[in-house]
Structures are given as structure tokens and as C-alpha cells.
Amino acid sequence: MFCHMKSCLLILATLITSQSLAQDVLTLPQVVANKDRVGVHLLDQGYSGEFSKRFDEDGRELGPDPKPFEYTHASFPSGKHPNVTADDLPINEIVVGLEEPASTGGFAYRAPTVAVAKIPAFDELKKLKNISDYEKIFGKFRGFTDAWGMNGEWHSSKGWMGFTLLDDGKIRVVSVFLHTENKGDGWKISTRRIREGVFQPTRKPPVLEKAEPRDARESPR
């Protein structure tokens, strides 16, 4: 990648033991340019911020926004995702590292946010009409979802988080959540929820206990 993405505001948590954490510390340009690393690596500095632009197409919130948080680690896949074809690009992502209770013997990593070559402007993202338009930007949806409905009408969702490295060393982070529906003529977008924010480099090594607010760590999203 630049690369594609896993999931969005239905944020996934992946438990990884401390023994599986790679030893080398990476800069963000190294994360973006990576072609052969695997596993989880600590970033040389944190990237902290929150979403400052918000768009809810149906006029209602689909859940609380994450409070200011800090990216602390880079994550690279050790194998191919089953939903990804051979010509798809690898996943280079940054994640939020959280300290877990000592009984787990490891860390939790949240908010997987994948490096993307170019993300359209916020107002342009609001105008995209098809699911495939977002897939062209962020790649195939790799998260978990389900479908519900009756009488031939079904509903589901897809989501992504992506980032681009800006010239001044900051990162632009974009979150897209799509509520989708199928009335017998294929899956289409029902409503969009889009978030955007610029995250600042902290200029110091990440501190796990400051990656997210304490109340966010104590209650699952």
C-alpha cells in the first residue's frame, strides 16, 4: 500500500500475547512502505487525536464517537485473509494498543486503520453512491457483520478506517460506516456515517495506558 482495510466503528479487538510482539520499532513511513514484515511492532512515536468532522446521513448517531486516542503500534498480517483475492494488496495498518489485565499475559489492539494511497476529500466521500466506490478506496471489507430482515428485505453494514501520511508528518484518519440494504436487487447503501480527523505525532514513544481514556478501556465498544 498502501493498502486496504479491515473494519470501522464496529471496532475489533484482537488479543495478542506479549511474546508475539515484534522487537523492532518502526517509523510511520516504514509502516507505509513495508512489504515483508509480519506481526505487531511498536511505533517510534504515538499519533494522538480525535474526529473533528462528522456526517450522519440519516441525522442520528449510530453510537458514540471514540474519545481522543493514540495510535501506538503497527500490524502486518501473517497470512492471507480468506475474503481477499490473490491480486489484492497487503494490509499495513496502525492500531491502538491497550494494556489488558495481567491474567491475559498480553495486550489488546483496537481501531485497525489501514494505510491508503489517497482518500478523497470529506465532502467527496459523502457523495459516493455505491459500495464499490468505497471498496476502490479502502479495499474489501474484512470485518465481522451480520444481516437481518424479513419479507424479502435485508439489512447489513460495512465499515473501514484508513489513514494517509501528510507532508507535515501528521496523519489524516477517515472512518466510513455504511448501513446497507438488499430488497432483492442486490446490496445498496442505505445511509452513510463518515468521520475524519488529523492526528498529531506526539514526538515521544507511545505510552499504552494513555492510548485511550480509562472509561473507554473499561467498557467494550
Automatic annotation (TrEMBL):
It comes from the Bacteria. Residues 206-221 have a biased composition (Basic and acidic residues). The keyword Signal applies. Keywords: Signal. Residues 199-221 are annotated as: Disordered. Residues 1-22 form the signal peptide. This is Uncharacterized protein. The lineage of its organism: Bacteria, Pseudomonadati, Planctomycetota, Planctomycetia, Pirellulales.
